[in-house]
Design a protein that fits this description.
The chain has helices spanning 11-16, 45-58, 81-91, 112-122, 148-167, 195-199, 246-253, 256-265, 275-282, 292-303; strands at 24-26, 30-31, 33-39, 71-76, 99-102, 126-132, 170-176, 202-208, 214-221, 227-234, 237-245, 270-273, 309-316, 319-326. It is of the alpha/beta class. Strands 5-4-6-7-3-8-9-10-11 form a 9-stranded mixed beta sheet. The chain has a 3-stranded antiparallel beta sheet with strand order 12-14-13, with helices on one face.
């Protein structure tokens, strides 16, 4: 068997070749490529996706973010036309013609890709395709075969991704979460193997408590910075309460104790003592002594150093001393540390 030679490009040519920017359906949130939206059953994913399709097809903003007006194909595979019609009436009295629905389609690897390609050729203004749900277009092969579950998951998403990349469109796959929770990484809760989130360009997790109307939408992807959106389900529409990017989320994780240290040092040129003594001098009531050095060591570079406060620590006998000193910008040349 003759194998084709690798097609390569040198770095100089790559840098000098003009390329179009990544197309976003929703600015800063939903880019071209494959986007997987996962959430538990019956928490409002379909209401969210239908509203999204309506907004994009009309060029209306999504949570104050501009959208790219375009034709939209919605494969609504768990519903009937009657149910879709009822939902549309609940959201609008004037639905656009460029939002089109189908309730039946082929499976991945058995005609779906060709069906979507044919539709895109017939309606070239289509830039958003929604498949609700992913499981409805898979043949349930699971872990069978040589590829195993990871290989099959990765191959299925990659097959859909090829269509998205060939036509420079965005495809949203609606998917489910496992019942098993993961407190460290919610993206590990996506049903199936990590092949799904690994092959997707962007992953979204919608998490909502059954007893309330509030939810959190987590977003992470190759062309999207990590962000968290707090949403509220009101009159069948998910409304934006708050949106945080990765920097804002990180800042929110910094203990408030560090900022109170900054205030404390405004009245000191230098302070030396133990964690318990620091808590006492600061009249700190919210932080325990046993976490003081942990907080200072972990976040001093981000909070103390930018405002000219130097942090040192050293164990002496049974005690650990802390030194906080205002840095006047000059180089210290005092030999060994003062503590």
């Amino acid at each position: 068997m003759q194998v084709e030679k690798l097609k390569t490009v040198d770095a100089e040519t790559l840098l000098s070749t003009p390329m179009s920017k990544t197309m976003f359906i929703v600015d800063g949130l939903i880019p071209q490529g494959v986007n997987v939206l996962s959430g538990a059953s019956k928490i409002g994913k379909s209401w969210l996706i239908l509203w999204l399709g309506l907004q994009v097809s009309q060029g209306l903003p999504v949570w104050e973010m501009p959208t790219k007006q375009c034709d939209v194909l919605y494969l609504c595979l768990e519903d009937t036309q009657r149910r879709i019609k009822d939902r549309l009436y609940s959201l609008t009295d004037d639905a656009p013609k460029n939002l089109r629905f189908a309730v039946l389609c082929a499976l991945i690897g058995n005609g779906l890709e060709e069906q979507i390609t044919g539709f895109l050729n017939d309606y070239p203004k289509t830039k958003l395709v929604i498949i609700d749900t992913l499981q409805k277009v898979r043949d349930s092969k699971g872990s069978a075969g040589k590829a195993g579950m990871y290989g099959n998951d990765y191959d299925d998403i990659s097959s859909i991704k090829r269509v998205a990349d060939d036509f420079n469109i965005s495809i949203i796959l609606v998917h489910h979460l496992r019942k098993l929770r993961d407190g460290d990484d919610p993206f590990n809760e996506v049903s199936g193997s990590t092949g799904i989130i690994g092959a997707a360009d962007t992953n979204f997790i919608l998490k909502r408590k059954r007893s309330g109307n509030d939810a959190t939408l987590l977003a992470s992807g190759r062309d999207v910075e990590y962000q968290e959106l707090t949403l509220q389900f009101h009159d069948l529409v998910w409304e934006l309460v708050e949106r945080k990017n990765s920097e804002e989320i990180h800042k929110a994780e910094i203990p408030k104790f560090l900022f109170r240290v900054v205030e404390f040092m405004k009245n000191h040129t230098e302070w030396i003592g133990t964690a318990t003594e620091l808590i006492t001098d600061m009249t700190e009531a919210e932080t325990a002594p046993n976490v003081v050095t942990k907080y200072l060591g972990q976040f001093s570079c981000e909070v103390l150093e930018p405002v000219g406060i130097e942090y040192q620590t050293k164990r002496t006998g049974k005690s650990r001393l802390i030194r906080l000193m205002k840095n006047d910008g000059g180089d210290r040349n005092d030999g060994e540390s003062a503590i």
